[in-house]
Amino acid sequence: xxxxxxxxxxxxxxxxxxxxxxxxxxxxxxxxxxxxxxxxxxxxxxxxxxxxxxxxxxxxxxxxxxxxxxxxxxxxxxxxxxxxxxxxxxxxxxxxxxxxxxxxxxxxxxxxxxxxxxxxxxxxxxxxxxxxxxxxxxxxxxxxxxxxxxxxxxxxxxxxxxxxxxxxxxxxxxxxxxxxxxxxxxxxxxxxxxxxxxxxxxxxxxxxxxxxxxxxxxxxxxxxxxxxxxxxxxxxxxxxxxxxxxxxxxxxxxxxxxxxxxxxxxxxxxxxxxxxxxxxxxxxxxxxxxxxxxxxxxxxxxxxxxxxxxxxxxxxxxxxxxxxxxxxxxxxxxxxxxxxxxxxxxxxxxxxxxxxxxxxxxxxxxxxxxxxxxxxxxxxxxxxxxxxxxxxxxxxxxxxxxxxxxxxxxxxxxxxxxxxxxxxxxxxxxxxxxxxxxxxxxxxxxxxxxxxxxxxxxxx
Length: 460
Known about the structure:
Oligomer: single chain
Number of strands: 13
Structural class: alpha/beta
Strand content: 5-15%
Distance between the termini: 25 Å
Helix content: 25-40%
């Protein structure tokens, strides 16, 4: 048996509920098919060779009220290929201070993203503190992030062909993240016993992939705000249609709280559109254009305290006029903060692979950009300004212009377009769990083996 706990609120709200130990989750019990845990005798030669690969464990060290130990694993870039080169995958083991040798069950945490490393504990607090009361927590840096052979613009520059970059990047989705997790479980957990996983946002997508392909490794699964859409070769279009509608609502809430910012953003859009080249240079060498300005909604509209942080950022958008008649300029403070808000330069995997997480045997074809056109000029910042309408900011979406206007992403432009056109993505889900409550629907056309049984409430 495995228990899947899912919250159908936003990822941030779900994470906060977990942090404060509130049982605001939907519990669904799934009966999983029986599988034997592989042994060296029953494994393929490549899998057996993987088990013999090095695993380096560091010494314990401490932060306030926690003990930590670093683990590095040499795993195949391509788990299905016997001759595949190895990459390093990093995981940090965390226990409550004094429990280093305690016989505790394991809980692996799968970070949201895609393309972001696991949290770095500073002290015993939040959900980590709560989890360490009962578990030995494993914080996984998913391949390509943090200390797991990180993929950055500079490291990817070692691969000079865009086609070869795509051939490398195709191994960094949920299917291989799950294979890494299983590799770690077989090395780390005594007697290779099943463990619990906690998936946050995109980590929840990975958790459902785990349920699909390696349920024998799982004792239970916890999802916070990350239940993937299922049933079509590419579900991105459906996701973004819903996302754009939700973004409209969030923009309405924001401007109701800060109506003065309608005019502020109009002034910024006019300034940018009238500037040479349709934008101004960012400190890193990229450009801030009206369309890029809309990307402030990624954090401003969809995170805890985002409305306030966005409003206070807009308060600092202009340089003061120290000399009468001096030219009006957007402040360096604002330009620098804008780049820090996006963070794509440090974590390019998010921009490169964001739409591919919805693809199985089909291409995304820049889904978010395509779907935005279905809303006419609603999300056109220049037309909104000309017509006196509020400029709608965008949300958790990736657009082709990122690879034009963000300096660190420009070298990856050709690879990004090839990834958007790529059709032969392997499957990510084999057995889709479905919600049977009145407020949850599934459009899956895949065969259903065992309907989930509702144990609690909280959906919606």
